[in-house]
Amino acid sequence: MALCLDFAWTVRKSQHKLNPEMHMSDLRDSIKWKSFLVGLAIAMLAIFVRSVFRVAEPKGGFHSALANNEVVFMVLEGVMLVIALLALTILHSGICFDGQWNKTKWAFRKSLDMEMSLISEILDGQAKARQIDDA
Question: What transmembrane ranges does the database entry give (predicted)?
Fold first, then answer.
């Protein structure tokens, strides 16, 4: 949570460094972006509540009242996960970026292409090895 806040502060502090060609300023002012941030905060808080419960649960041992209370367990375990899941699914970052992701110069596609070419080279090498073994 501290790293998330640090990142948000750094981004907010350096708004002037955004690439104007990518319309990132427009994106950051949009309701989709703000909704995404709200969803991310909701998911983070739900997971935090669940984690606190999971740490406190075994404090009194496996026979304590907290460890054996099924209603509390269902709410603080299952419901928190459902809330986080729904927040991250409904307010997904792919929706909020509104096609801007493809305009970035992030190298995921290049590395994926490199991985695919390595896989094809490995498969070609395995096929050649089988041909040699068969001969």
Answer: 33-53, 73-97
